[in-house]
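Lay summary. Proteins are chains of building blocks that fold into shapes, and those shapes determine what they do. In this project we predict the shape from the chain. Here is one chain we studied, written as its sequence of building blocks.
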Amino acid sequence: MNIKTNKRVEKILGIKFPIIQAPLNWLTNANFVAAVSEAGGLGVLGFNAGPLAKDETVSIEEKLRSEIREIRRLTDKPFGINLYSPKEGMEKDNVFVRSTLEVAFEEDVKIIIAVGEVNRSIFKEVKDRGGIVIFRELTPSVASAKIAEENGVDLIVATGYDEGGHIPQRQIGTFSIVPTIVDAVDIPVIATGGINDIRGVRAAFALGAEGVYVGTRFIVSEENPASEGAKQDIINSKAEDLLLVSGLQRSTPTKSAVELAEMYNNGKSTGEVEQEINKRGGLRTGMLDGKISEGIISVNTAIDTIKEKKKVKEIVDELMADFQ
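And here is the predicted shape, written in a compact code that computers can read:
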């Protein structure tokens, strides 16, 4: 099968294949991001990336700058950085927003993946400085997609409830949300949520997407900094095993996840359970530090299709086989 596209995504981002690596928070570093970009996709540096992430004596700016420069040492291909996109008006005093933008501009990183809510001010600032904006609303809507397009966003990520990480607050699956957003805007739409193999890629393009945004499958790669225990846990787990640990996250059934799911099912609010998750170290404990029983392992709902750990290039080549 050969998918014919207009290659808008590849042209906008300057990449070989229409595949974007999800930012993945703690689970990115320069080596991993560079590997994705070298393989022909768009590598993305997430929050808390790299070996300096845990060092409280190093500033946010220093940590980010260090990883960006290391990526540049490893590859000359395009890559992006993750930016939190808060409600309008909240960006001015947010240290993470300001630090990320200033370092990005100073280091000449042009591609910004704004994840959160529509923020015209952020979109304008990035565009005014010659940047490219990829916008992923946490709970996607037609109204927000249209506003984003009107305000210069280059690509929109349509997130299905199938995804790992922060779950949309409306239970609309990838098969439903992608064509809905595609029909609402003229700019390219990127599909995400449960895309782990070439069948998911083909389905996304059949629904009108012009690219895919992949997280969970890339975690189970040789280059990803996730712990080997977390990678094996993903391989061993099945979709039917997954637990909702709050209204925002799901996990494989680790000891901690079972406890958290019981709290949530017994009446604790999402906010209360999320506070407890943060006390236990969030994703870092199980997924980065490898303390599987003490943490949660956040994944998409299609993990049955992940059978083994592979190199990043092998994953990209398999997912993008129709574009070779």
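What the prediction tells us: The chain has a mean pLDDT of 95.
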